Amino acid sequence: MTPLPRTLGLLGTGVIGGGWAARALHFGIDVVALDVDPGMQDWLRGAVENAQPALARLTCAPLPPPGRLHFTTRLEELAARADFIQENVPENLGLKQRLLAEVSRLSPPHVVIASSTSGLMPSDLQREMRAPGRFCVAHPFNPVYLLPLVELVAGKLTESATLDSAAAFFKHIGMHPLTVRREVPGHLTDRLQEALWREILHLVNDDVASTGELDDAIVYGPGLRWAAMGTNLIYHLAGGEGGMRHMLEQFGPALAWPWTKLEAPALTETLIDRMVEGTRAQAGGRSIRELERLRDHCLVAIQRALREFDIGAGATLRALEQRLERDAAARADGAEGSALRYETRVRPEWTEYNDHLRDYRYGQVFGDAMDALYRAVGVDEDYRRSGRMYYDVENHVRHLAEAKSGDDLCVTTRILAVDEKRLHVFQSMHRRRDQRLVATGEYLHLHVDRATAKAAPVDPRVRERLEALQSSQAAEPLPAGAGRRVGAR
Ligand SMILES: NC(=O)c1ccc[n+]([C@@H]2O[C@H](COP(=O)([O-])OP(=O)(O)OC[C@H]3O[C@@H](n4cnc5c(N)ncnc54)[C@H](O)[C@@H]3O)[C@@H](O)[C@H]2O)c1
C-alpha cells in the first residue's frame, strides 16, 4: 500500500472544496487549494473557520497538529505539491474533462486524482487523462467536514489499487468510503435522494403539502430512524417476527398502487415560487450561516449519540478516535513525561446552567487522562479484549477553581504506587489560561480479570512501564493534597 497522502490538492474551492479543506486540515493534512477566482481565497479561509466549532466538538480524541492551508491559482504549483488531488469544480462534463486532463499531465502518474462529481460517470471523466488508472470518483456529502460518507466509483480504466489508496486516505480522515460496484449515473445516494426529491416536487406541485409539512414528514419520523439504520433494515423490522418476507407479503401489493410518480414534474414558475416561498417561511428569518451552524451542531450531537451504540456514522467516529489515539500514543512513545500529561477542552455540553463543568465531568476528564496513560503503557483495546483491565475502586476529587465552557485543561498524573494488582495515582487538573489548579483527583485502580471477576496480576510488561514512569517522577515532591480525606479541616 502506498504511504498516506500528506498534502491534499483541491481543484475548486466552493462549498465542497471548502468542506474538504476543513476536514483535511482538522485531521493534520496540509492543503493546497486552487480556484480560478482569486477572490475565493478569503471565502475558503472563512469556510474553514466556520467549520471549526462543530469539528472541535466532534471528538475529544487527541488530534495531530492541524494541517497548513495554501491557496494558489497556478495549476503547476498544485500539481507539484499535492500527493492526492480532489476535483470540485462545477458539475459540467466538458469543464471537468479539460481540467482533469490538464492536471494529470502536470502531476506525477502515481498521484491519485478523484472527482467530487454528484453524478457524472468516471469513464467519461478519465477519458482524456494521462495515467487514467489513478482516477476515480470520490463523491462526498455536504457538509464534507461532518458527514463521513464518500462514494467511490471506478471508471473502465481505473486500477483497483486506486480505490484502495483512496479508501485508506478517506478512512484516515474519518470517513466511510462506500465502493459502488459499477458506475451508474447519480451513483447510489443521489439516486435515492432524487427519488424522494421528485415526490416532494409532485406533492408541492399538486398542492397536497407545503415544503414545511413535507420536511415534518421526515424530521419527526423516518429521518430519526435513518441515522441509525437504512430503509432496508428498518423495513425488515416493520415485518415483525416475519421480518422482510412478511413485510413484502403485506405491503407488496402497494407496489402496484399509484404511491409514487417518479417521473419529475415540470419546473413551472408556480412550482418554483412554492418551493422558494415555502423554504423561506421555514427559515423564519434565519440566515444560511445561522442554519448551517444549527445543522452542524445537530450532526455532531447525532454522531456522538450513535457513537455510544457503535452504529452507522457513530461506528465510523469510534474507529477514527481509536486511530487518533493509537497515533497519539505512537507520537508520545519515548517523549519524556508525555504519557503523564493529557490535554482537553471543556465542551459546552459538559457544563451546567452556570457554565461550569458539571461534577461528574471531572471524573470523565480524569478518566480520559488515565485512558491515555493506559494506552501508552500497553493497556489498550487489544489488552482489554483479553478480558484484563483496570477498575477504578476508590477516589477522592477536590474542586478548587472553576472550569468554564471553552477552557483548555491540562491533567498531569503522578504515580504514587504501583504493584502487581494496584495502581495509586494523584491527578492535577490545571486550566491553561492562568495555570490555576482547578481540581485534583486521587484514585486507586485495581487490575481485574473479567473471566474470574477478581483482582489479578497485571502483565509484567505493563507493570514495568508503569514503574519506569513512577521512577521518572521520583525526584518530584509529593503533590499537596495527596492522601487527604473528605471532611472539614
Ligand atoms: N453542493 C453539494 O451539495 C455537492 C455535494 C456533493 C458533490 N458536489 C459536487 O461537487 C462539485 C462542486 O460543487 P460545489 O457545490 O462546491 O460548487 P461551487 O459552485 O460552490 O464551487 C465550484 C468552484 O469551482 C471554481 N471553478 C470553476 N471553474 C474552475 C476551474 N476551471 N478551475 C478551478 N476552479 C474552478 C469556482 O470558482 C467555484 O469556486 C460538483 O461536481 C458537485 O456536483 C456538490
Summarize the structure.
Helices cover 43% and strands 18% of the residues. The strands form two sheets. Strands 3-2-1-4-5-6-7-8 form an eight-stranded mixed β-sheet, with helices on both faces. Strands 9, 10, 11, 12, 13 and 14 form a six-stranded antiparallel β-sheet that branches.
Structure, described:
- With 489 residues, the protein is α/β, with parallel strands linked by helices.
- It has 3 domains: 7-187, Rossmann fold, CATH 3.40.50.720; 190-285, N-(1-d-carboxylethyl)-l-norvaline Dehydrogenase, domain 2, CATH 1.10.1040.10; 337-472, Thiol Ester Dehydrase, Chain A, CATH 3.10.129.10.
- Helix content is 43%, strand content 18%.
- It contains 17 helices and 14 strands.
- An 8-stranded mixed β-sheet has the order 3-2-1-4-5-6-7-8, sandwiched between helices. Strands 9, 10, 11, 12, 13 and 14 form a 6-stranded antiparallel β-sheet that branches.
- Helix 1 packs across helix 2 (40-58), helix 2 (40-58) packs parallel to helix 13 (288-308) and helix 10 crosses helix 11.
- The longest helix has 21 residues, at 288-308.
- The termini are far apart.
- The model has no long low-confidence stretch (mean pLDDT 92).
- The protein binds nicotinamide-adenine-dinucleotide.
- Nicotinamide-adenine-dinucleotide (NAD) binds at residues 11-17, 34-37, 40, 88-91, 95, 99, 116-118, 139-142.
